[in-house]
Amino acid sequence: MQKLLIKGNKELKGNIYISGSKNATLPILASTILASEVRLSNVPFVKDIFTMIELLKFIGIKVKIQSNKNILEIKNEKKKINTLAPYKLVKTMRAGILVLGPLLTKFKKAKVSLPGGCAIGTRPVDLHLFALKKLGAKIKIKDGYIIAEARKGLMGAKIKFPSISVGATENALLAAFGAKGKTTLSNCAIEPEIKDLILFLKKLGCKIKISGRKITIFGNSLHQKKISHKIIFDRIEAGTYLIAGVLIGKKIIIKEIDPKIFRHEIDILKKMGAKIFKTRSSITILKTKSLKKMNISTKPYPGFPTDLQAQLMVLMTQTKGLSKIKENIFENRFMHVPELKRMGANIKIKNKTAYILGPSKLTGAEVMATDLRASVSLVLAGLIADNRTIVNRIYHLDRGYENLVRKLKNCEAEIKRV
After folding, report:
1. Which CATH architecture has domain 4-19+233-417?
2. The pTM is what?
3. Cβ-count burial of 230 within 10 angstroms (0-12 exposed, 13-18 middle, 19+ buried)?
4. DSSP state letters, 71-91
5. What are the structural domain ranges in the chain?
6. Would you name the residues annotated as active-site residues?
7. Which residues pair with 110 in a beta bridge?
8. For residue 188, which of 170, 206, 208, 207 has the smallest C-alpha distance?
9. Of 406, 91, 115, 417, the residue nearest 241 (C-alpha)
């Protein structure tokens, strides 16, 4: 089993180029079921993407990988394809369920395994199925599989989500693409990654309007032309390195981004005392001498993202006073806390809130990653800790961070994979 060795307390300096967004690429890959020929650029080649590629190949779609250029060439020429997404390809990646909508709307049936992914909460698929049933699908769950059919095709409908869900919004969008008539989705997630998916679907010929948390889709007849699309940058990866720069950076420049997309996170870090300077496509972080305490709550976009909560918590261990994080998205997203406490962090959990008393002197230890974002928080902790930190179970990191070791080494971090 591979692990990371990190020797901490070394200032970082250099440039970090941000990869394409994993969370934008996955639904766009699922939507290629609806296309004929697609060229995707700025694709992050992380484990979840390769899993989705294997799923598309299993279904019957041709995928050519140009890994040196971060490009995928996708051809969907078969009229009869496999409408099954098996457990072996969905068990490690929650996004596998996103093939349900496009398979159902194009082929009128689908059999998709209930998904896996990070163990950060129950994350039920109820909202996905709620939306598909509204569009006319008949659905049952049997032997761990979702079995869906719409013999006469899906029909446009008005759907109001009882709570905001990124995945359910994406699946409903993909299903509504081929539904007859108009579909209105309200109380939607409006993450930048969803807007990137909408941009892609518009290139496929779909007419979509978005206003606030309301999305209107007009059922589409497919255009069979080749389309090209560049994936949006990964704002969670950018936020992770931004926090690393505030923690122990001398001068870090984060490139190939749009700072407007995560200005809320930047504003929070500035209020904490970070020295951050923006251009249209980059952020420069200069050495921060002292950090102020902060209280935040995780919320759907444009609020503070749950995917940066663990990383921010590491930063809060170095602030003066008591900081608080209330986790409103997932009920089991503080699993990194025991590992941080083993390194010397002073953190208490009560109900859905973490109380972080700082500043704490962190000391290197052997720690265990429990999920994707928790694992990278342990890397950040290792960068500022005394002595050596060993991070185990780093396959979680491989699911979402492209070339993490190389990018940190380029900024003079002492980190290696063994």
Report:
1. Alpha-beta prism (3.65)
2. 0.95
3. middle
4. EEEEE---SS---EE-HHHHT
5. 4-19+233-417, 22-230
6. 118
7. 148
8. 170
9. 406
